[in-house]
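Renewal narrative, Specific Aim 1. Our central claim is that a sequence can be written position by position from structural information alone. The example that follows is taken directly from our test logs and has not been curated for this report. It begins with the structure tokens describing the chain, in the order in which they were read.
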């Protein structure tokens, strides 16, 4: 028995792999971009269509609790991220939730002008901040720096950071960064897109003000799954979101002539929620809640550590922190031929992805990956590099989605 086989046999999470539908012949190292299908999801969606929508029609909103689904799944996500009970809701996309939370945070710091963020943050986060700053009479500016904690001053209204960097996998210390921002009088918005389902989170204990994140990465909610947002209980009384849609009204079915916000995060809902997508997301969230997060973290570090060591031994240059406590559940390497190498790997069933300009990215989701998968992926890297398979012109052509 190989070392990897022994580790797989004694892995306390090994039974989770069977709860996913994974295609034959694929080692999936891209669950940080789009998680695979939980085995239960197809039947769950079919049941909502046939037995709920198909039978109840409009009555489904009450008979099947659709009207509360965004809140119900939000509460479960709140448990995954350690949020104040009742402080998390599912809505829209991460980009839109950044807009809503950033705007709400700015309204709480009217005299301050700066939205502070970090070089290398995910583009949509920065684009949304830029759009807010440019909008009519906002009077705000975006400042993007290498060391955001050092740049905190009395002009900073909001510090907006992604907890685990999408490219390098580097992870911030949420508690200490948040404390530094609060010390300077600023609020903090954390993007947890690459953290939820991958690393232990305790946004309430770490004193985060706002948090947002994706449903389709490590929580396996499906392509374009709705996102979430979460707000600390201490801000609920003064919380005002900028998109004032009817389902964020305190009493939507009163059909009042003017807007009155629902209290807390309920006011972040804009329009009618996507029930089929929410049903799929709930399956992924329930599955994640079954997995003890400390075991997930332990295995994640073992898998990423194993892959990092093997790749570095082969001369690949890691851009992921070597210190395990400073990284999420992904590793990345910078390589001038990174794009073509990744295409050659994908053609051989090792699915990672590429991020411009030269980054090969590999995500390790502990619920369905085995230690043997790490070793098999490394063996395929060896094949590609030894034969210089990446030189094939077919692998040089850029695709629309990398
Ligand atoms: C994946 C990701 C997003 C995606 O936002 P969408 O609106 O769902 O497209 C946003 N921010 C970060 C940090 C991400 O990793």
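The sequence written for that structure reads:
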């Amino acid at each position: 028995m190989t070392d990897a086989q022994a580790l797989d046999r004694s892995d306390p999470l090994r039974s989770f792999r069977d709860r996913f539908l994974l295609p034959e012949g694929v080692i999936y190292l891209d669950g940080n971009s789009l998680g695979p299908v939980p085995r239960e999801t197809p039947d769950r969606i079919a049941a909502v269509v046939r037995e709920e929508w198909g039978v109840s029609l409009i009555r489904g909103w009450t008979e099947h609790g659709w009207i509360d689904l965004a809140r119900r799944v939000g509460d479960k996500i709140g448990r995954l991220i350690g949020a104040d009970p009742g402080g998390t809701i599912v809505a829209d996309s991460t980009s839109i939730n950044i807009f809503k939370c950033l705007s709400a945070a700015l309204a709480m710091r009217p005299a301050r002008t700066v939205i502070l963020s970090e070089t290398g943050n995910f583009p949509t986060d920065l684009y949304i901040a830029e759009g807010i700053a440019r909008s009519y009479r906002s009077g705000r500016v975006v400042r993007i720096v290498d060391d955001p904690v050092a740049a905190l001053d009395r002009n900073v209204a909001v510090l907006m950071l992604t907890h685990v960097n999408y490219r390098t996998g580097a992870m911030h210390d949420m508690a200490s960064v948040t404390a530094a921002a609060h010390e300077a009088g600023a609020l903090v918005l954390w993007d947890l897109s690459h953290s939820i389902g991958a690393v232990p989170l305790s946004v309430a204990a770490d004193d985060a003000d706002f948090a947002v994140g994706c449903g389709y990465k490590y929580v396996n909610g499906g392509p374009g799954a709705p996102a979430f947002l979460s707000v600390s209980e201490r801000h609920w009384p003064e919380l005002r979101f900028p998109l004032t849609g009817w389902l964020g009204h305190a009493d939507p079915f009163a059909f009042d002539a003017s807007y009155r916000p629902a209290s807390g995060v309920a006011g972040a809902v804009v329009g009618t929620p996507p029930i089929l997508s929410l049903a799929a997301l709930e399956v992924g969230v329930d599955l994640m809640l079954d997995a003890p997060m400390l075991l997930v973290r332990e295995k994640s570090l073992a898998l990423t550590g194993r892959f990092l060591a093997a790749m570095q031994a082969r001369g690949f240059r890691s851009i992921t922190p070597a210190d395990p406590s400073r990284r999420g559940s992904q590793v990345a390497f910078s390589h001038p031929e990174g794009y073509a190498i990744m295409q050659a790997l994908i053609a051989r069933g090792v699915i990672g992805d590429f991020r411009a300009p030269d980054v090969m990215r590999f995500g390790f989701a502990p619920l369905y990956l085995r230690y043997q998968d790490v070793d098999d992926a490394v063996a395929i890297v060896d094949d590609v590099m030894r034969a210089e398979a990446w030189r094939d012109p077919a692998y040089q052509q850029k695709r629309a989605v990398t």
